[in-house]
Amino acid sequence: MLFGQGEGPEWSRVFAVHDAASGLRAMIVIHSTARGPALGGIRRMRYASEDEALLDARRLAEAMSLKCALAELPAGGAKAVILDHEGLDHDAAYAALGRAVEELGGRYVCGPDVGTSAAALDLVRQHTRWVNPAGNDAGASTAAGVLAGLRGVCRVAFGDASLGGRRYVIQGLGSVGGGLAAALVEAGGEVAGWDPDAAARAQAQALGVEILEPGDWPLEREPCDVFMPCALGQTLDRETCEAASWRAVCGSANNQLVDAEAGAILHRRGIAWAPDFVVNAGAVIEGAETLLGEAEGCRERAAQAIAAIEGRCASILEASRSQDAPPAEVAMARARALLREG
């Protein structure tokens, strides 16, 4: 499977990284450099096989290319995955991966992702310059982008961009989901959610978030105005989308839809889905502006570009309605056109 066609998105380059001393087995997938260096985080997870890890990396790398294109960034998409396992020396593994990233000479610029902490990324920085700057806050910038996208969703789905007076269910209350919860409570929203981490739950509950205990009733079935998946992807399958009692979906998780039919079901049911690769672009926008752009004014440019997600999301949802096409189709068509233009 490693170099076969298989299922899933295409790629431009695949690099296998192995370091015997640390036990590192990793893959770097570069989807596209047509618009510039390929940006993408480092994900560390336990995978059932190398094929599963590769497929995950390919999907995520393609999503990064689409995300960068729609945000009009001079960058393409990539993703690195570390196959976590017993005996892996995490510190040495991240150092080895940093050396591998440096050897690519700037074709790939890495950043944080699931399983890669700020401390781990600091280890990478010791060995490569091609990494998200330490002064950036990926969680905060991602949350800012999702909030901007949510305002666009509210404009189309509810007729106004205000965030108060609506019920939100957040799946995942970590750095992004927790930040969203705080902002929505402050805006006057009714917020509920769940996270497997006890500290994250306690922090959210202290803000006034209703904690939904797991059980026979899946979180995805909880009635709300807006469901916000902010953990791992692949949560919106056909059965869930058929049964859901939401009016809209807007969250930070990558690759939320299990397949295109799940998105088509949401569209047929009149549930507005904000394409994940549109609304979760805050961190990559911040990274591109601070690393690839002119230093002077980079923070202001990043803030303006993140705020522009609101209009982009609303435009895609409006086109979805007028064309009677799922939002994912509209957004992907726009992104692919931009990728072809280079």
Q: How would you describe this structure in keywords?
A:
single chain; 342 residues; alpha/beta; Rossmann fold; 2 domains; five-stranded mixed sheet; 13 helices; 11 strands; 45% helix; 16% strand; disordered N terminus
Brief rundown of the structure:
The chain folds into two domains: 108 residues, Leucine Dehydrogenase, chain A, domain 1 (Rossmann fold, 3-Layer(aba) Sandwich), CATH 3.40.50.10860; 175 residues, Rossmann fold, CATH 3.40.50.
Task: Show the helix and strand layout.
Elements lengths: L12 E7 L4 E7 L7 E8 L4 H21 L5 E8 L6 H14 L4 E4 L6 H8 L12 H20 L9 E5 L3 H12 L3 E5 L3 H10 L2 E2 L14 E4 L8 H6 L4 E2 L10 H9 L3 E2 L2 H4 L2 H10 L6 H10 L1 H15 L3 H15 L1
Parallel strand pairs: 3-4, 3-5, 6-7, 6-9, 7-8, 9-10, 10-11
Antiparallel strand pairs: 1-2, 2-4
Helix pairs in contact: 1-13, 2-3, 4-5, 4-10, 4-12, 5-6, 10-11, 12-13
Structure description:
By secondary structure, the protein is α/β, with parallel strands linked by helices. It folds into two domains: 13-63 and 76-132, Leucine Dehydrogenase, chain A, domain 1 (Rossmann fold); 139-280 and 309-341, NAD(P)-binding Rossmann-like Domain (Rossmann fold, 3-Layer(aba) Sandwich), CATH 3.40.50.720. It is 45% helix and 16% strand. The protein contains 13 helices and eleven strands. It has helices at 50-70, 90-103, 118-125, 138-157, 175-186, 198-207, 238-243, 260-268, 276-279, 282-291, 298-307, 309-323, 327-341; strands spanning 13-19, 24-30, 38-45, 76-83, 108-111, 167-171, 190-194, 210-211, 226-229, 248-249, 272-273. The strands form two sheets. It has a six-stranded parallel β-sheet, sandwiched between helices. Helix 2 (90-103) packs across helix 3 (118-125) and helix 12 (309-323) packs across helix 13 (327-341). The longest helix has 21 residues, at 50-70. The radius of gyration is 19 Å and the shape is globular. Mean pLDDT is 92; it is low at 1-8.
